[in-house]
């Protein structure tokens, strides 16, 4: 397929992935020294580990010899002290840079230059207690990303107080627009602690472009959602979306903050991991054991709706998007197309979102 056709397909809604981007993988505390863990990101098997030096690294989790997952082996150290991963099948060893360090079956008179054999290395970074992996469009990319991973306001009070995740059996695009959809809550999340489809009202929100995405300007709480009641005071909320799949609510309540961050990581064309992380220095977090089940159920309500939606999507219907309720979904499609085009054309990303006011009922 020609390169331009490949780029066009990657930019279509419900198809392809965004490359040359940082994807959230795990909390730093989940990546243990000496442990090998396999992740799937954009259809690629990725091994992530932490060496004895404390540094996290990521390489492709397939041995080029006989395709055994390297994560089934063990972490070792070479003579120079650098970490290497030993394949469980024949003991081939690969350094954290992906370069083959040893092939035990070779004899002294065999001249194969083992350092010419390598597995793909993925740039990896730790930021704010999270691990991010950079997935380049070019599988031979061996440099460093042009920018660090995103940072988020409100990462306070140590590590996240509430952590939850689940896999939605859907393409990344459907997961993203479902996440930012402002009008489904009264129906999908109807409960005594949320909102009711019988108590809808008109909402007016101001939006503006932000780095690689857009932001809903800071505003007062929704009276329909009773979960805000537990924070007391007069919460002020700012909601931001950023490519490839980050959405966060930064809530200010007097001197206290709450950050509710959702990270979407595409596993395959039909599976997306949704990770929800909540930080806060608010006193209410003393009762997080009571709050966590509500957050967990909220996410699973969305998951059940995704499964129901899949029953219709399998017929590949044309989807109707309306203003203003679906404008954020339209922006996402525009952002995705511009992201893909700017990289294909080798030019800076130009945010297509303009400041505007949107109205809807929910």
Which consecutive residue ranges, at least 5 long each, have pLDDT under 50?
A: none
**Approximately how much beta-strand content do the residues carry?**
25-35%
Instruction: Write down how many β-strands occur, each being a DSSP E stretch of 2 or more residues.
Output: 19
Instruction: Please state the oligomeric state of the protein chains shown.
Output: single chain
- So what's the overall shape? globular
| Helix segment tally | 5
Give the averaged pLDDT, no decimals.
91
- Widest β-sheet, arrangement of strands: 12-18-17-16-15-14-13-19
CATH architecture of the largest domain: Alpha-Beta Complex
CATH fold name of the largest domain, please?
Naphthalene 1,2-dioxygenase Alpha Subunit, Chain A, domain 1
Q: Given the helix and strand composition, which structural class is it?
A: alpha+beta
Largest sheet: 8 strands, antiparallel
What is the gyration radius calculated from CA atoms? 23 Å
How many structural domains does the protein architecture include? 2
Show the helix and strand layout.
Elements: H1 3-11, E1 21-27, E2 36-41, E3 44-50, E4 56-60, E5 74-77, E6 83-86, E7 93-95, E8 100-102, E9 121-122, E10 124-127, E11 130-135, E12 162-168, H2 172-180, H3 185-188, E13 202-210, E14 213-220, E15 236-242, E16 246-253, E17 256-268, E18 271-280, H4 288-313, H5 327-344, E19 356-361
Give a verbal description of the structure.
There is one protein chain. This protein is globular. 18% of the residues lie in helices and 33% in strands. By secondary structure, the protein is an alpha+beta fold. The chain is built from five helices and 19 strands. It has two domains: 115 residues, Rieske Iron-sulfur Protein (3-layer Sandwich); 200 residues, Naphthalene 1,2-dioxygenase Alpha Subunit, Chain A, domain 1. The mean pLDDT is 91. Keywords: 2Fe-2S, Dioxygenase, Iron, Iron-sulfur, Metal-binding, Oxidoreductase.
